[in-house]
Amino acid sequence: MTDKAKRSRTHFNGSHHPVVDFWRREVGGISPRSFSDRFSASENMVLRLEIYRKLAKHKGCVNTVSFNAQGDILVSGSDDRRVLLWDWELGNVKLSFHSGHSNNVFQAKFMPFSDDRTIVTCAADGMVRRASVLESGKVETVTQAPTELFTCQAVNPRRRHLEAAQLNAIAMDPRNSNLLAVGGMDEYARLYDIRRLDGDGSSRAADHFAPPHLIGDLHVGITGLAFSEQSELLVSYNNEFIYLFTHDMGLGSSPMPSSPEDDSKSSVPMAYKGHKNVETVKGVNFCGPRSEYVVSGSDCGRIFIWKKRSGELIRVMEADRYVVNCIEPHPHIPVLASSGIENDIKVWTSKAAERATLPDNIEMQRKRKPRGWMYRVSSPRELLAQLFFLQNRSRFSEDREEGEASSSSTGRELLDLILNFNDDDDEHVNCIPDKSRGKIEDVKEEEDDVAYSIQIMSATSLARCSPIYYSCDACKCVSSSQNHQTSENRNLVTNRRFSKPVRLILHNRSKKPNDPSLTRALREFADSGLMEDALHLFDEMNKSDVFLWNVMIKGFTACGLHHEALRFYSRMVSTGIKADSFTFPFVIKSAAGVSSLSQGKTVHAAVIKLGFDSDVYVCNSLVSFYMKLGWAWDAEKVFDEMRERDIVSWNSIVSGFLAVGDGLRSLVMLKEMMKCGFEPDRFSIMSALGACSHVDCLNMGKEIHCYAIRSGIEDVMVLTSVLDMYSRYSEVSYAERVFNGMTNKNIVAWNVMIGCYARNGRGVDAFLCFQKMLLQPDVITLINLLPACEEILEGRTVHGYATRRGFLPHVVLETALIDMYGEGGKVKSAEIVFDRMGEKNLVSWNSMIAAYVENGENYSALKLFRELWDLDSSSLVPDSTTFASILPAYAESLSLSEGRQLHAYVVKARYSSNTIVLNSLVHMYAMCGDLEDARKCFDQVVFKDVVSWNSIIMAYAVHGFGRISVCLFSEMITTSGVSPNKSTFASLLAACSISGLIDEGWEHFDSMKREYGIDPGIEHYVYMVDLIGRTGNLSSAKRFIEEMPVVPTARVWGSLLKASRNHNDITVAEFAAEQVLRIEHDNTGCYVLLLNMYSEAGRWEDVNRIKLLMKSQGVSKTTSCSTVVTRGRTHVFTNGDRSQVETNRIYEVLDIVSRMVEEEEDSYAHCVSKMRPETLLKKRGNSPRRHSVRLATCLGLISTETGRVVMVRNNTRICRRCHEFLEKASKVTRREIVVGDSKIFHHFSNGCCSCGNYW
Length: 1255
Description:
The chain is an alpha+beta fold. It has 52 helices and 30 strands. A hairpin with a 4-residue loop joins strand 7 (118-123) and strand 8. Helix 11 packs across helix 13 and helix 13 (516-527) packs parallel to helix 15 (546-558). The longest helix has 16 residues, at 447-462. Mean pLDDT is 76; it is low at 1-41, 365-379, 388-413, 415-500, 1160-1171 and 1176-1181.
């Protein structure tokens, strides 16, 4: 076979690779059945399995491995009592934490539907623990109290003396979760239906399974169980083979001993022959689609794979020097994970160039071990492996005394070897193979160290089978004892007991007061996370040495027991022991771990007092502490006062400023770092790239990218940071070049690229990138993909995919779904997602509030905000984003007084300098009619962004002060250095349109593309049509619409309709109305405007036609109402309203003002000839003199102080007669009157209006 052919077979991206087939099945390219047939029909994958990667981080034998539902994360548990979460494709540890168990971890699995944030573990200490991964990355472990379901009774009469059958294995039927199979120290596999359990816990099994020839055999027991996808039961026996049972092979609920005749008649299960597991408990499993293969570990260090249907052994793989404990298949692709006595996990994939063949010695039994379990003890590590091996076989009674009394002879023999390992005993050496004797002789040259190592390792192993009793207050959170004793009254305890490892160490210690072996033992316990044993040993040692205290504090900190570390430090200080430079870094880290500023400052004071403020390591810890808690000024002060700095110091300050959101300061510190002669490393570069993403420094980001290339710092993490930086600057082409040049793409890189496409409006490319992923998508993938959903159907598809894959519930993903539905106008769907969330954070509340506001449901937004406000939760306090989201709702609901109250709270909460909040306040005040306060808020913005300028330009525009808006735009361009965007020109053209600035409008419209490269959008054409319509040249406006490069919308034609109304051109109005109704058949404003034009023209047939058309379309005229706020109360008026308390005074004032402005009594006298009599009567009953805006204005005049502005809001377009009345009223009353209608604000002052009589 040529090298080229070999490479083509092993290439991961081959067109017929099973991973590619899996991807094609997921996107619909292959049917599930065809995929399954293709997968199972090929033995190549099994015969080409070889080790892809070894995952080695555990310090003990690995007892369990398990994939998550997506298959991208592997969880493992070990005799070192730690649980590790692996990114198995890259070989990186994503998370490592202490399980909280005091003994070997035997099982560790992800809890379904927990988004890989909940892990359930069980261990040899008899406890079940649930570990929850929090948003902050911390892990909380909680002991789960077990509930007794049933007790397995012995079936064989010769075993009836036993109270219960001891169990080794349990399995759940994947098709019926109510069926549990259990097996243990006899020949029967029992099947229980938990729905039929008796209340006393002594339920009988629903069925029993056993090979006929093993029934009655007292020397066999079950070592492993597994269910296939077809509910077949796989059972392995010690010193026997593996058997496959189907439902029809059951022996019933009360099996009886069989005779030879019965054996010949009964169904014989399929046997999988090969290696026999003689003594150890090994797991069995199925692998492949439809469970086509049977796989098993062994105590000879091999993995065996059989065909399930034929029982043919097709593969034997060397997987461990001693024992294979666990084999776990990947849920989706042809990958296996195995673990054993060796301290690593082996990941197997089908990448071998040649097909494997069966070895010649398949029938070989387990490796022979002279003198029982003690073999190959050529090093402490190998002895420790055998200790772990013994632990898996040891069974201790719940009673500690019985447990010690029932220790096996093997255990006593092993303990004897451990205690005398450093003696010159030829017997021990003779039990070792010849090839290992040289190693033992070399080890004997350092006799004391060997003895110490073996003692510690044996103690570490034996600690996993001993209940622990504590005597120290600092271990309350990890203690299982209810009888704590303090060190002060320790001498009063006469029957004090130590854990087995501590007794072992103390038994062999010397009589010296400061025995170095005890110090080494304490250090070993602490480094291994065995803080319970370390506490026992510490209490028996001389505590005058600060090194011992440092070891304990470091151990607590490493295990995440920060409160205990701080309490231990306090105990150390109270004892009179002075801390040194090695103490403080761990104490400061623990203070940061509990987010306690007061404790951290107390430690800082001690650092200064003891003179360690010049120690670089201590100061680095202080910088990280203050930055983590957000006190950047204190961190910088510590940094500036450092006499000596290293690369860690600079990285801490650079990343710290980034963490508190000050990207500019982070980049400044990076430059200072380089000036001081320090070369940035990968951590410096990643922090600097993140800082460039926070500030407008794209060129700086490119420089850092070039520096990384020149320095050869181009690993996957740095390149992913570069990718993210270009993505945030919308430099998609640069991001694509970086992404395509990455040889090793992890899931983070794929997620960043998908997010880059989604954020920059390239939804199709985002979905194509998603389909090209060969890795399993995670939650972040879907979160980044949701913004790419241009249609709501695409978003629902992603939502359904997340539900099917078990990604929900997940607070971040659910929040992203709320955003998606809110932007798509599906508020009810967003509500459903929000209401069903089990855990809501502040971002979720903010997203739901924003969804309401974006869709005009302001009162729902205000109601939800008040619910958030009333919550009694320290973690759900409204922040700047909350205020920025809710303030527009106050603007639209015209709640100026409540808006002012919220502004006061913003100032009190110290958000008054936040640019986003101030921008929202500018908008709120402007929309509520208070232009003066809007300008004050704008002037308070220190760092004005483009949104700030857009808000104030639009504020002056809607109030009719277009020239001020134009001046503000010029100021923005010339002095601020902020570049305009599309929204800027929309606000500017709106100002020109409202104020009639025709020449300025055309000038700025032409400059959009010419000077700023911005293509006009539909909103810009709307304002330009309105601007042309002001001139009365309606034909030019119509021609401008027809020549637009974009398709006109109803808003564009509506602008032409409004212009024709103002110029009484009914022909153009009819044409424009036809276009509007063709696009939006239920446009109320179009019907009403056309109806009024026909009525004034006396075209009563057209009036009746429009009315019938409105009725058929279900369209009704909006009832005009006006609102005014006086003395903190909101008053709402309708036309001719007489429901107010001060109605008589209001009408009296209205009559007085009307006479003062010399308004005609009958405003319709000029058009009597055009109106029908009944219409004239109706119009007189609804005379402009009784319009709601006049009534509200009169109430404002009599209820406010002289000289105060009268502010009124109207929900419809103000009529011309009322407009003229308010102009004159402002002059005769010498009051400024501000009226906001459905379009703009009218400022009436001294007989003039800001709109220039065109609106």
